[in-house]
Write a structure and sequence with these properties.
The chain contains eleven helices and 18 strands. It is of the alpha+beta class. The protein is elongated, with a radius of gyration of 23 Å.
Length: about 425
């Protein structure tokens, strides 16, 4: 096929994946599409790794091994983009309740780009030497996918790579890449908090302990953790993303449940955040006269994502050579989190993980510095938004080229690199 035909094929794959998202560890349709494509390209393909993960291996003579990773799962979000290929899919959430599902974080872009890179690397084997190891990972959004593949013998079964490479689409201008060397994505902890009250009739609050008021006070007090207990030069985020209590206006419920996201880059800051949150939760419960202690449970945890300095510089040099100089920026530290670093840590190899611009470049017209870029980004729908919708091109084309260039940089043939 011509390059134009290749891009049209990728766009078709992308629209299909976007319209059919699947939740964590339920990516059966997506995994089937991936496996079929990889097998047709000649990759040694294995499904069911770590649940619904897919691994494709292509050996092309002597040399190192480069692992390229894409995540596959969607989010429990009702899509509001208005696109003609928008998702109307539903799935069963971890709580057993049916929920709308959307690729609100761009994992459909990640899968499509890696399939495009797989096709290019298979067709142009004279441009690299070594082994390509493609990892299509489940369940990134719940923090269990990378570890599940590791626990399923990823490196024992398929070999240990020399580098882990990957990308994440975001609201940067499409056509640009963003790579931060050193600590690049925040570590994350997801807490589930249960506050216990004493239920009763809404007309007789004096006979009850109201968990709604207890939860409201707790939410407000948690806002002081970062503003009053974290130094100005340190970075942290505490977000209460879910709060549920009761089902009727005239009934004081028995309990309230909260889900809290905690982001940090430094182990000492993380420890302070976790200690402060638990102290506040228990103190507010005591102040309300709760009949029993609250429950604070750590549900998910991502380590800080750290890009290797030298490996990052080497990869950027490859992009300058293959894609053109000036397309890579330092986006600063990202407060979002990723579990791809677990793959590199488990393998004991460098990690290079970058941002792929997915926003319409027209929105950035006239912007010439990072401050201006950040101002525009703040006004655009971000990852996890019901309106998040990367433009198809040049997002996919740039994403494929970035992956292929990175792989070739780490799998050079004689006279190249």
């Amino acid at each position: 096929m011509s390059p134009a035909d290749d891009l049209a094929d990728l766009a078709t794959i992308y629209r299909d994946l976007h319209a059919h998202p699947e939740l964590a560890f339920a990516e059966h349709r997506t995994a089937g599409i991936v496996a079929e494509r990889l097998e047709a390209l000649g990759y040694e393909t294995t499904t069911g790794v770590g649940g619904t993960g897919v691994v494709g291996v292509l050996r092309n003579g002597p040399g190192p091994t480069a692992l390229l990773r894409a995540d596959m799962d969607g989010l429990p979000v009702l899509e509001e983009t208005g696109l003609d290929y928008r998702s109307t899919a539903t799935g069963i959430g971890a709580d057993g309740v049916e929920t709308p599902v959307m690729h609100a974080c761009g994992h459909d872009v990640h899968v499509t780009c890696l399939l495009g890179a797989a096709a290019t690397l298979a067709a142009e084997r004279d441009t690299w030497s070594g082994t390509v190891q493609l990892v299509f990972q489940p369940a990134e959004e719940v923090g269990g996918g990378a570890q599940s593949m590791i626990d399923d013998g990823l490196f024992d079964r398929f070999g240990r790579p020399d580098v882990v490479l990957g990308q994440h689409v975001g609201p940067l201008p499409a056509g640009l890449l963003g790579l931060r060397r050193g600590p690049a994505f925040a570590g994350a902890d997801m807490l589930h908090i249960v506050l216990h009250g004493r239920g009763g009739h809404g007309s007789r609050p004096e006979t009850c302990v109201d968990p709604v008021v207890m939860a409201a006070a707790t939410v407000l007090r948690l806002q002081t953790v970062v503003s009053r207990e974290v130094a100005g030069g340190e970075s942290a985020v505490v977000t209460v993303g879910s709060l549920h209590s009761g089902n009727a206006g005239n009934v004081i419920p028995e309990r309230a449940e909260m889900r809290v996201s905690v982001r940090s880059y430094d182990p000492d800051v993380r420890e302070r955040l976790m200690t402060s949150i638990e102290r506040i939760v228990r103190a507010e419960a005591a102040a309300s006269g709760a009949p029993q202690e609250p429950e604070v449970t750590l549900k998910e945890s991502f380590p800080v994502l750290i890009n290797d300095h030298d490996a990052g510089a080497r990869t950027i040099a490859g992009w300058d050579r293959d894609l053109g100089a000036g397309l890579t920026i330092d986006p600063g530290a990202v407060t979002g989190s990723e579990d791809v670093g677990m793959l590199a840590t488990a393998a004991g190899v460098p990690l290079v993980y970058w941002l792929l611009g997915g926003a319409d470049p027209a929105a950035f017209a006239g912007v010439s510095d990072r401050e201006g870029l950040q101002r525009v980004v703040r006004d655009l729908p971000s990852n996890h938004s019901a309106q998040f919708a990367p433009v198809i091109e040049p997002t996919l084309g740039t994403g494929v080229k970035a992956l292929v260039s990175a792989a070739r940089t780490w799998l050079p043939v004689e006279g190249r690199g």
